[in-house]
Amino acid sequence: MSAGSVESMQHPFGSVVTAMVTPFTADGELDLAGIERLASHLVDIGNDGLVVNGTTGEASTTSDGEKSEALRAVISAVGDRAIVTAGVGTNDTAHSVELAHQAQAAGAHALLAVTPYYNRPPQSGILHHFRTLADATDLPMMLYDIPGRSVTEIATPTLIELAEHPNILAVKDAKADLPGSARVLAATDLLYYSGDDALNLPLLALGASGFVSVVGHFLAPTLVAMRRAFLDGDLEAARRLHFSTLPTIDAVFVTQAAMTVKATLNRQGLPGGTVRAPLVEASETDVDAVMTALEASSG
User: Dihedral through CA 252, CA 51, CA 35, CA 40, nearest 10?
Assistant: First the structure.
């Protein structure tokens, strides 16, 4: 497959996509000006897509109304320059459908839906959930497979069945099952996005289209360059660039990533803001480690 054909397939979601944090004010309210400023910054540094109201966006502690406000703020700021994907996944199918309708009304370009968590549905229930959600709008949808959070995986046969739905176009893969990912890529036309920054290059090698990243808050230029080097066939450069991201990945994920990302953005003079309970503010030691890693990667 040529680089040009790969590029043409990525329009529904972008290629280097950051799952952005949701800035809050000191008193815990949405910082709409900060959201717009951060979204603009993330696109300026190379992201061609953003996910709003995802895990890193603390969607579990924002209301439906806040989700709509945050999404509208991002679309207002960068909707003409980047693909804006709305996180709409919950463990309640009816509620997820409501969020999908809300996201479409707000102007989202695409949807991201995580596997229903906590209630541990069987694979037949996962099939029904995602098909119902995909039927709810005409927006392209990306499945988010992350059993470390949802407990239940989207099994390989289930992914292959879901690929038949015309609105289910992609998977955010955070399962760390490279053989399983390869089997789905071999059997379907699903676009794969690495949802685990440490596996960005390995998943590209299997045929992934891009990344839905956390360290893209800081390292989007490196991710863009790494992906381009890979598509150009310069594997040595791609490996070098991927390896350069690992210290930052390790530092960001030493604890819950929304905590470290927000605190590091604040340290950089960018709008990260506070976190909501049960998350707590990252320690100065953890932020120092991220800053040191970023300095090393830029050196």
Answer: 90
Residue owning tokens 């760390």: 176
In this predicted model, what pLDDT tens digit does every residue of 177-233 receive, in sequence order? Answer: 999 999 999 999 999 999 999 999 999 999 999 999 999 999 999 999 999 999 999
Number of Cβ within a 10 Å radius of residue 73: 24
CB 200 within 8 Å of CB 223: yes
**pTM of the complete model:** 0.95
- Kindly report, residue by residue over 141-192, the tens digit of the pLDDT: 999 999 999 999 999 999 999 999 999 999 999 999 999 999 999 999 999 9
E strands present in 140-247: 141-145, 168-173, 191-194, 210-213
Question: Catalytic positions, please?
Answer: 144, 172
* Token output for 46: 């190379």
- Largest Cα span, the chain: 51
Residue pointed to by tokens 């004010």: 25
Which amino acid does the sequence have at 152?
A: T
What is the dihedral sign for C-alpha 136, 23, 61, 260?
A: positive
Q: CB neighbours (10 Å) of residue 149?
A: 13
The shares of helix, strand and coil residues in the chain, as percent rounded to the nearest 5, are 50, 15, 35
Alpha carbon distance 135, 101 (integer Å): 11
